[in-house]
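Thread: quick sanity check before group meeting

JM: Hey all, I'm pulling together slides for Thursday and realized we never actually wrote out the predicted structure for the chain we discussed last week. Dropping the sequence here so it's in one place. If anyone has concerns about the input, flag it before I start.
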Amino acid sequence: MKLDALLSPESVAVLGASPEPGDLGHRVAHNLCAGGFGGEIVLVHPQGGQLDGRPVATELGQAVDLAVVATPAREVQAAVEAALGAGAQAIQVATPLERRVGSEKGELERELLAACKARGVRLLGPSSLGVVNRAHGLNATFVEHLPPVGSIAVVSQSSALAAAILDWTASRGVGISKLIALGNKLDVDEIDVFEHLLGDPTTRVVIGYLEYIRAGRDFLKVAEALSSVKPVILLKTGSTGAGARASAAHLGEPPAAEMAYGAAFKRSGVVRAESFQMLLDSARALVSQPLPRGPRMAVVTNAGGPGIMAADALEQHGMQLAALGQGTLAALRKLLPPEAGVENPVDVLGDADPARFAEAVRSVQADPGVDGIVLVLAPQASTRPVETARALVACLDHSKPALAAFMGGGGVVEARQALVAAGVPDFPAPHRAARSLGALCEYATWRRRPPRVVTRYPVNRRRVERILRRVEREGRTDVEEFMAKEVLAAYDFSIPQGQLVTTADEAVEAAERLGYPVVLKIVSPDIVQKSAVGGVRLGLVNPEQVSDGFDLIMLRIQKQRPDALIEGLVVEKMCPRGLEVVVGMTRDPEFGPLLMFGLGGIAIEVLEDVAFYLAPITEDEALQMLKSTRSFQTIEARKARVGMDVAAIASALQRLSQLATDFPQVREVEVSPFIVGRPGQESIVADARLVIAKGVAP
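JM (edit): ok, ran it. Output follows.
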């Protein structure tokens, strides 16, 4: 259902419009009356009387588009019922309602939601700061001083953060179009708001703060649609164990896996802010600057040290220093003193007057190899910050993003104001300008992404169905390695030649047929970690070792796991040497199949250098997964030194993606290690684990 009655009402009632100035209802009613809202306002409170010269009714006796409930908590249910009975089209509950993790919390909330849904009425909150629509003159919040009219829409699950954003933007003259504080999200959530903002002509950039997302797959669709037409920047908390626990305690909601959120934002084009400061900095950059054509950036500065700081920060945030063209270098040498630095970063020196600084920027701006500029000024003895700011504003042609970092305190305040007034974002330090430019690059890269084409491989689905049905009939969820490899083989993974055996003699016969060296592994539905119980023997090179290895494994298992059902041992051909990587999939309850890649060994276990992406995945996205890890340099170095089939890793990720989407009952897959050989050699599944969920239809 649309949100017109909530965001663009023609009539608004405030229930709980108290005569006491400190009460929540009084502040909301006062702001509504004083905010320039041109529609009908109805104030309701049991005491009646007047508020800001307007009459206060003792009950709501007429239909309104929006009813704001700002009563004490004990009166919320009666107020909502009164609003519904009077014909309200949307209800905003500003009052916080108590929520406790693990208790019978939510009974009142469920009753409120059911009553609203029965009448087709949208419900915002509870614990919602409210809504602001600057174009409509609507301020249904307790925040009195609003920022100017602008084109940034704010969506926040936290009322406190929403109030802080309003205060920050108001104090810096940054304009907003709308604010929607979701509160506890009983009904209206970020998906509803994103759908509304998709067609909102007053909004150019969307920023938000979220603590959890319930309908992950629906969020993906609407966030991708919104990001395709306007930037979306989100601050998502709960990224640490402590943060996740605090989020659950605050909201009574179980947090989804953090890596799933990161993958969801990456897929849908959402720029993820790492901090409150980055959220607001990135918004200023994206709302005022054109998108860069690429990652090649230039720094123009009047001080060497700050210029180096900017260069470092640009590289740290995924960009690179542009190589200036010969024409640009010649122009700079002609313009600047001999001791100036003409290579990027361009140092115009501390004695540069406004004209010299501006002409240098003009030359760099014209270079076709430059995609964006950071302007860094440090006040020195002969610096004229205000005149320099005005000269820079005059020389910029807005064909490329330009962000400023005028460093200092009181001496640059007026200069910074001149920049911001002209639409050039200014930051107190180079690293913040570089980070904001990185947000522009990230979003621009996503907008330039190729069309998503998911490859469908020819596979043997019937073979997988038979295996999974057998596991389900046996009442198991863990699929033993031997059968997990059969599943992967059906999706065209190469697995070692092997044979299931039940005696030492059979093991020797199998080893002789396969050829040495071989591996022995226990096969049991009750044993997942085979190595932990001595169920694996590697590198066996003759019949005696195979026979002894069989007996030793069986002896160890009988001692350590006498309760385990033993189906036998598998004899496998020893895998050839190669680069060991890990590929896998886990199914997030909200966002669906989440693919994983990492370099084997210390890279995953200690450094936690792992990349995640949501299925289904394209070839380009699979390659991006590899490149996003710190270990990719190791992969590239090995490829250059001895050769390596990087495409085989990308193909493996795509095949796992197809397996996950074909079989929703597959909950987890781990291929560890996946041994990657040189181009032309087979990459082999050395070990595999697969987990299915009970009662999930294929």
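AS: nice. The chain is about 40% helix and 20% strand. The domain at 461-573 is CATH 3.30.1490.20 (Dna Ligase; domain 1).
JM: adding both to the slides.
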